[in-house]
Amino acid sequence: MEIKEHSLEQHKERYLPDGAITRLGKGWVYDFDYSPDGTVFAVASTIGIWIYDVNTGKELNLLTGHTGFLKSVDFSPDGKTLASGSDDTSIRLWDVATGECKLVLNEHKDEVYTVKFSPDGQTLASGSRDELIYFWDVNTGKLLRTVAGHVDAVTNVVYAPNGELFASCGREDRNVSLRNAQTGEFLQMLTGHADGVIHIAFSPDSQLLASGSRDKTIVWDIQTSEQTGTYKGDVVAFSPDGFTLATGSEDGTIRTWNVKNGELQNTFNTTWEDIYILKYSPDGDMLTSSNGVEIQFWDIRTEKLVNTISGYSQIVNAITFSPDGQTLASKDDIIRFWNISTGKLKQTFIPEKSVTEIAYSPDGNTFAYGTHENTILICDVNTLEERFTLKGHTKGILSLEFSPDGGTLASGSSDNTIRFWNTNTGEHLRTLRKEIEGQRSISFSADGQLLVCVGSNREIHLIDVATGEVQESIDTEPHHIYSVVISPDGKTLATVNEYDVIHLWDVATGEVIQTIQRDWGSENLVFSADSQTLASCGWDVNLWDTNTGKSIKTLNGHIDSVFDIAFSHDGRTLASCGRDSTVILWDIENLDDY
Length: 594
Description:
Blueprint: H1 8-14, E1 20-24, E2 29-34, E3 40-45, E4 49-53, E5 59-63, E6 70-75, E7 81-86, E8 91-95, E9 101-105, E10 112-117, E11 123-128, E12 132-137, E13 143-148, E14 154-159, E15 165-170, E16 175-180, E17 186-191, E18 197-202, E19 208-213, E20 217-221, E21 227-231, E22 235-238, E23 244-248, E24 253-258, E25 264-269, E26 277-280, E27 286-290, E28 295-299, E29 305-309, E30 318-321, E31 327-331, E32 335-339, E33 345-349, E34 355-360, E35 366-371, E36 376-380, E37 386-390, E38 397-402, E39 408-413, E40 418-422, E41 428-432, E42 443-444, E43 450-454, E44 459-464, E45 470-475, E46 481-486, E47 492-497, E48 502-506, E49 512-516, E50 524-527, E51 533-537, E52 541-545, E53 551-555, E54 562-567, E55 573-578, E56 583-587
Antiparallel strand pairs: 1-56, 2-3, 3-4, 4-5, 6-7, 7-8, 8-9, 10-11, 11-12, 12-13, 14-15, 15-16, 16-17, 18-19, 19-20, 20-21, 22-23, 23-24, 24-25, 26-27, 27-28, 28-29, 30-31, 31-32, 32-33, 34-35, 35-36, 36-37, 38-39, 39-40, 40-41, 42-43, 43-44, 44-45, 46-47, 47-48, 48-49, 50-51, 51-52, 52-53, ...
């Protein structure tokens, strides 16, 4: 298949949102598909469709246009068109050669989970969370018919290769529905699973159907509707010759089975905890799998892993800049360190325990992270070798903050305490318990003398770090405060409450000096280094003038919620991360140009 030459870097730049410098990461993988000739590989991710050359592994293109996560992709039988379904409720048809969108189909009322071309390429079927299955004319985009699918979301649809039958499955009703592919007429319900059916696949001769669920995989004889065998696994794929069934399990194991006698043939052991997608290459030589973060290519003949596509990740929910501004650390299930100048990944660190929060020391030599298992680890930033493990909290760590001199680390926990630690010795200094609520945000003043936190009685506490005593309290009644941060100049507090209203408070008087309009979904706040700008994140990233309370700019670029934001120490760059599993770096200096 010939694809028009593209510069992927140009495409990345072209599809960056206004004001963005770069995007770090490719998102999360929901689906992938091979072109019929096996030369091109398409990946549906949270930010778009990545197109790869199968032989070289080179990224050829990034198709964007959906405003939601991409849940499904399917090549047409002639390989010229690619269909995609998204949780923005739309379906798009793409010209594979040019990367241009040819048609947008908009009839679904909820997320589109699955799209599939008919064997003749003239019809596209789609299944949605709206419990309906739609059939579309591929040439005109006209909706041909609608059928009621299942009692909940339709998770998968597939045509029999001979074009006579059509199968679908639902997340909750545990059944597979068979229909006449031409008319949509209901024919048969295959019942036998004890859990929701996630994946289905016809054998190449259209005589068998495999259905995968968390309980097991069942292979059905289409003529008799009888079960011919059950297998371990919940993700299914038939080999192109029909002799082998592959299953993927939630233990990260891929197994291949002889379809005729049901015997186990081979086992492929990934290092993953689960497998979400499993497909054969068109020539049957390769078995391809994904856990959402990586895509692996297994040689069937040698049983060896021959290639891996990486760069995808889980949801990114915490970020922090190094003090020199040269590195950004991000956290999903892995801690990643990015070179800000190049946008390249410098280093990855896989902790033994699930990480909740990350922080750099002010001198940049120490890196700390908190865990769900109640501990905090302090590491050398270059080697990531552990210096200390800090124990004392009885529940997970919610927030970490180094004092400006780096000598003290404050930790907030869902055990409703704040603890102070000596970063040079690992010694526990003191614990704050009085009227402290589970701390998602704590903030040192610029001189390090005060720590700001939220009290359980709807108060903001300013705590003397040396003594642990509450020096001042600001009453926020009747509102519950989600987040609080103190400005670098020490004059202003910013809070956001349960109604998503942001208030600016005068530290000296305890009075509200600005009330900022609702910023929907806001939970995190951060001041710029000069204290003149406040950034908030929720559905988008918003910048506010702290003197007037007026909006400076709304930065739209993430697909779905934004979870964390961080200014570089020189104030020139803002980083944001979110549910789309990417980090965006924003050019704060030149916002007026956008």
